[in-house]
User: Fold this.
Amino acid sequence: MSLLLQIEKVGHSYAGHTALEDVNLEVAEGELVSIVGPSGCGKSTLLRCIAGLVRPSQGRVVLNDAEIEDVPDNLAVVFQDYSRSLLPWLSVRDNVAVPLRRHGKPKAERRAAASEALEAVGLGAAAQKYPWQLSGGMQQRVSIARALAYKPALLLMDEPFGSVDAQTREDLEDLVLQVRGEGMTILLVTHDIDESVYVGDRVAVLSRAPGKVIADLPVGLPAERDQITTRELPEFVRLRAEVGRLVRGGSAPVAS
Amino acid sequence: MTAASIGRRPSRYGLGVLTAVLHRWLVLVVGVAAWELGTRAAASAYFPPPSEIVARMYHLWFAGPASRLFLTPTAMTNIVPSLTRMGIGLAASVVVGVALGIALGRSERAFEYLDPLFQFARVIPPPTLVPVFIVLFKIGSQMQVASIIFSAIWPVLLNTADGARSVDQLQMATARVFKLSAADRLFKIIIPSTLPKIFAGLRLSLSLSLILMVFSELLPGTANGIGFELTDAQSRSDLPGMWAGIVLLGVLGYVLNTVLLVVERRVLAWHRTSRGTDN
Assistant:
């Protein structure tokens, strides 16, 4: 597996507040890495640095051997706040199809690609509706479909399931596991310890602010995962305890 | 500019709406009846009864042949020129106001430099500038349209700038992430998200343009228009004719405003509903 993303000594301060300090992380192609940390540890800032929305004040982020200076071409983001990220005046299908305009595809193809992506997230029937006619979980599915249709090399997810109920959250976690097979590399930021272990190939733990990576743990769970049985496995129980201690303590890493 | 949130509550359908409409019309009917009785009892030449005013309106403007939509030649020289000038003035205000407003709203620096200037220009009572326009332009349509534009442009411009400034940051971040072109950002994000504010400005601009339309026609040297008919009737001591002009202006204002509200409801359906169900 070749290296897709390198985060090198990234630090970021704004308005006298240091959000990130000396963050180092490498992500290989096709990996799903969870970034977990206590609230306010700079997780979202890190993700915005990777997305090119924020220029880090120190260090650099390298994607495909090129330093990120602006938003890279082959990157998509699923934001936590789906209700503000989707456009209420466009239908669900147009929300998914509009970003595809720059690929120069004709309208019919864009719509077909949008319908296909909506089909993939189980929303084939809602294409003509408007985002505000859907439940929160369905709206977040739309923004996942928008990212999928865009076919990015790197998909960033910023607390994507932070605003939905527990049941919907599990469904969406399984949706992420299902779509990761499509050759996409995924970086998922969350404050939920169980979630970071359940969906990740690796879990990177950030310390309290200023955030830095205090542990990078491989997840030794089978690729096929299930909300009930996977959470019963000794490896899951062990990892979630370890990550939990790290997040709560935010102190010295425990040997893995 | 707080008119933005008028009439946003979705009402219940069925009987409730019917009785509400009935009540509203009932008040109007009672009011007109009282007016009729009062003026008949007073029998003052200055206050003709509404029935007489309506009869005058009919003979003056709407007794024409069916082939001309019942409009009389007087209507063609009164109503049509007035509405044409108002239409041109309002349309120009909207086009220029929206374009400038968006440019202003999206540029932090331009906004900060120009906002005080515009706020100042906005509070100048528009009629005071009509004499300036009389000097600048010929008396007649040019001057009248200029007066309408100068008053009607501010609400649209300032509301649009305000709306364009407050486009959701996350929507703009989404546009950056998905690399939307400048045109797509404008037409798919900035303009739609500014539309509620544009309409709020438009409602104010509409009533201002009606005021300035009449005002610019009241001046000497005007040859046609509803305002001209009004002063003309007054100079001929044709009091029912004068009142007919006043009532006509009220009706026009009401109809135009209603049309605008209907258009707004259609265009901004997403806005009303998405706000209504948001929690």
Remarks:
- The first strand of chain A starts at residue 3 and ends at 14.
- The CA atoms of residues 193 and 244 of chain A lie 6 Å apart.
- The beta strands of chain A are 3-14, 17-28, 32-36, 58-63, 66-67, 75-78, 154-158, 185-190, 202-206, 213-218.
- Chain A touches chain B at residues 51, 53, 71, 73, 75-77, 79, 81, 83-85, 87-90, 98-99, 101-102, 130-133, 146, 150 (CB under 8 Å).
